[in-house]
Amino acid sequence: MRDEVYVGRADADAAGDRGWLLGHFKPPGDVRHSDEVEIKWGVHQRGDERARWVVGEKRKALLILISGRFRVELPGRSVLLAERGDYVVWGQGVDHSWYAEEESVVLTVRWPSVPGYAVSPPDPE
Question: What is the DSSP track for the chain?
Fold first, then answer.
């Protein structure tokens, strides 16, 4: 039973995997390993923004504001999450980006858990 239970703290655990607490990237055999879903505890400083838009999204996502003020950019639409509990859901094929207007904490759930979505650093100019 011990292997089927994990107790942690989101702030501490998220720091080790770019915010991701659960998903395909956790080691097989770890109760936090999943091919079905990914969960992220995102802690963002004011002015943080996604390096590049996600294009050709293959997953669905739910992003919930825990604290702060956070903007999600979608094609032809900008969604401001300003009050605790505000959330946005988007489906497969919806390109997106984000920007932290204030120091923010957001919880993101994506499904399924698909390898290969890490943002690489921008090309040197």
Answer: -GGG-----HHHHHTTTTTEEEBTTSPTTSTTB-SS-EEEEEEE-TT-B-SS-B-S--SEEEEEEEES-EEEEETTEEEEE-STT-EEEE-TT--BEEEESSSEEEEEEEES--S--PPPPPPP-
What single-letter amino acid sits at 16? G
pTM: 0.86
What pLDDT sits at residue 118?
56
Q: What is the largest CA-CA distance in the chain?
A: 53
Name the nearest CA neighbour of 16 among 28, 26, 1.
26
- Name the CA dihedral angle for 9, 15, 16, 17, rounded to a multiple of 10 degrees: 100
Indicate the pairing of strand 104-111 with strand 60-67.
Answer: antiparallel
Assigned token pair, 31? 């109760």
Two tokens at 49?
A: 């923004």
**pLDDT tens readout for residues 31-49:** 999 999 999 999 999 999 9
